[in-house]
Amino acid sequence: MSRKLVFSIVFACISNFILCQSQVSGNIIDPQNQPIELASVVLLNPKDSTVVNYSITDNKGHFKIIEPKQGPLLFQASSLGFQAFYKTIRLDGKPIDLKNITLKDDISTLDAVMISAVIPIQIKKDTIAFNANSFKVNHDDTIESLLSKLPGVEVDSDGKVVAQGNEVARIFVDGKEFFGGDPSIVLKNLSADAISKVEVIDKKSDEAELTGVDDGNKEVIINFTLKKTKKNQGFGKLSAGTGLDSRYFSNLNYNQFNPKTQISVVGKFNNINITGSNIRGFLQNANGIADDSDDDKNNSSQIQRPLSGFLTTGVAGLHIGHEFKKDESFNADYFYNHTNNNRLSFANRITFSGKNNFNFNSDNDFKNTTNNHNLNFNYQNKSHKMHSLHINGGFTSDIRTNVLDRKGRFINDSNELVTTNNSDLNTKNDRQTARLNINYSQRLLKQGRNFSTGLNTTIANRNYDNTQNTFITRNIGKPNESEREQLTLRDEAVKNTQLYLYFNYTEPLWEQHYFKIQGVVLNKIDQEDALQSRTTISDNNKEERLDFKFKNTERRYTTRFSHNYNSTKWHLSYGAELQDLNRAFGADGDMPLIRNQFYLNPLATLQFKPKRAVKYRFTYKRIIKSPRTSQITTIVNDLNPYFIRTGNPNLRTEKADVITLNNTIHDFKSSLSFYSRIQFQYIEDAIISNVLIDDDFIRTRTYENGGNNKRLRTNLSLSKKIKTLGIRYTLKNKNLFQTSNALVNNELNDVTTQDYLFSLSFENSNKSTFDVKTGASYSTNKTAFSLVDDLDRTFTKQNYFASFDYEFSKKLNLNTQLDYIVFTDNKFTNNQELPIWNAALSYAFTGNKRNILKLVLIDILDKNVDVFRRSTVNYFEETTTESLGRYVILSYTYKLNGGKRKKTKRS
Questions:
Q1: 220: which residues sit within 8 A by CB, 6+ positions away?
Q2: How far apart are CA 575 and CA 338, in angstroms?
Q3: Inside any domain, residue 560
Q4: DSSP line for 652-676
Q5: Which of 90-94, 574-578, 758-762 has the lowest mean pLDDT?
Q6: What is the rounded CA–CA span in Å between residue 51 and residue 28?
Q7: pLDDT, tens only, 845-894
Q8: Tens digit of pLDDT for each residue in 39-97?
Q9: Which pTM was predicted?
């Protein structure tokens, strides 16, 4: 597979699309010859009134539609408060100017059913509503696929949803919470054909909704409205499939929604590495400097990565919601997740420690089993105009067992095998977490005067049972060669308790000016108990024991004062935070160490919204970050004899000044979506790693306060529709520049990291028959170290992709995607070029599309490998993992309450 083939596919997709296009233009005016802004203009299929293409008018009432489809179409223009206008036109590749179109007044306005059926987009004050029928989805697509078709909405490989440049905080179905509002569960389990409307809502804060005073704090939420045919009766789907090499999968989704009660059931069971991530997450790569905290799991090969190795997954979930009355509801859900992951990998680590540099590589056979139970509930009462109450909480139980067989080899800088370290590790991690959040808000009689109070509490218990058998051979091939075998048992119990109490009061000063005061009490207690016994079998079963208890208590008393100014366009807030931080920590039996500190932290926010969907925001704040318990503990963790970890009780707090600039522009009239974010952090007394490596390659890590670190992060996204071509392009750029340092064998290692990512993609704006997307991304990481000469690392990744979705008929659909990925790294000679090709062919063999056959081909070229690379302050690492590779699945899907879409009625 060559790059020429990829470019040929990309060029063919674009060329096939841009030929033979027609332009339809004109102006929409009212009876007084005034332009109508945001009127909807649509090209409809005359056979069934389905949407072919659409646009909206600008402030001059002008519109323009570029459409490649030829033949007769029905033109429709409509706006709320006016009668719809219809005209049959024929597209033949030539421009069509409809000139001025006058919409007549309609006292009764348009029928709501007709609006939802034929108007692709409705724009209200804080809401953009999309007609789901206007966007092509396949027979068995989930609503995640539907969202990716909407202009201004993106879904990344982790399931994070970004709408109009803002991350979506919550997702609702028919205005009600669904599985705790978790986007990943909602998006991957509800069928796209069950949705009639998608609303992107710029929602005010609960306080602003209650008091009527806009505080400038908004969150973006998405609400999915179900089709009427899906309400008051059960709907969903059942899928099952099998394929070569004993591969199988099954999927169940059932929903019963009525105006008062909602019940949903989901289930999955498969052995084809389906965990919720899409195939774009097949290769996970780490760029830049990473923390070495992953080594706390004794070997980086244990780090979980999506679609790595061979994975069996079982999922079951139940959601129940009930609305007692308007604005008073209760929701509860339970979710169970089981995974069994087997993995074979090869890890190669290049370690530098000043004068003693060496390589470490290992063969790893890893088995992981996870059983996770998650219970959530949410009660909300906003039915009273003067007060509101919100209670939510949950309980999580997570049990993980890990078995690792590792064959490790240490190679000196003369490329000689010096030491082998073979170990068998068995770990059981049992964690339970309970949480409860209560919030009460009260609106007082004077306009703008209000208060709110509440508490958040979390209790977490974790138990680690570790058994490790290690066989070490040192000085291989030399007269003083020696062998050592050790059996280590280590049990750790960790308990974390956190209580957060707060009180907010707002007092109106004069018109649009407010004084706010906030009081916060935060109490955190971390308790850590460790019991370890080590038997050296090669030394006449010599036994060593370690019994340790450590407690860390932190109390923060915070008072915040601020002056706020709110208007339609401007929001200004500035003030100060008085913070009293008290810490007490130490080992059981020792005199606890006491740290009392007082801080004055300034804060400010300035926001300007000149018009709808345009926002500029500036924020400044100072953050006080106390050391984590693992950074100050005196408990020594030497379960892995080659990586000994402990803390430093003399660490000071970090002080970070953070400046953030945000700019969001989303304009449907010009089909423009722009988002930018710039953040700068300056960290004083930064906590850094202190690593000592001896001649036997034993690494000991603790922490120090190491000067000041700086970090600059920028993020830019631009999406624009080229109307003359009917193509939308998206340009993204992410950059990171940071300075940090570490101590390696008592030498200061200054580290400078630069990350750059550029991506450009093209897609057709009319997706009624086919959907084409193509593009490329380029990312590079440059890491410079001061410790050793010629140590700088440059890592790049190039990704070229093309995807094609074509509907041969209402029953037959083809979807395929090709990714060509190139990795280069100046520290690893094993550079990779990986073509990943996937395809799916689905056929609905009954007229109502209830019965669907689907043939799925994954990794057709059989590149069954997963590559993971990272850098830390004293080593580079590359891990190559054997993964599932090529497989073929034939599946059958039966849809409950699936039926033909009713034809739209017209006047």
A1: 163, 164, 166, 167, 168, 169, 200, 201, 202, 203
A2: 48
A3: yes
A4: PPEEEEEEEEEEEEEETTTTEEEEE
A5: 90-94
A6: 19
A7: 887 778 889 898 888 888 777 777 777 777 888 888 887 778 888 989 88
A8: 888 888 777 666 777 777 888 889 888 777 778 888 988 887 788 888 899 888 788 99
A9: 0.82
Write down how long the chain is. Answer: 907
3-state helix, strand, coil in the chain (%, to 5): 10, 65, 25
Buried b (16+ CB within 10 A) or exposed e, 843-859: ebeeeebbbbebbbbbb
Residue 794 lies in a domain: no
Place of tokens 């306080």: 207
Give the pLDDT band of residue 118 (cuts 50, 70, 90).
low
469 lies in some domain: yes
Both tokens assigned to 519: 């009081």
Assess contact for 542 and 578: CB atoms under 8 A: no
Q: Give a yes or no: residue 812 inside a domain.
A: no
Torsion of CA 363, 364, 365, 366, to 10 degrees: -170
pLDDT in tens, 345-386: 888 888 877 667 788 999 999 899 999 999 999 999 998 989
Q: How many domains does the chain have?
A: 1
Place of tokens 């090969």: 301
Chain centroid to Cα 405, Å, comes to: 32
Q: What is the DSSP letter of 650?
A: T
Distance CA 833, CA 822 (A): 4
Residue in this structure with the two tokens 């599932």, named with its chain if needed: 884
Range of the domain at 580: 416-617
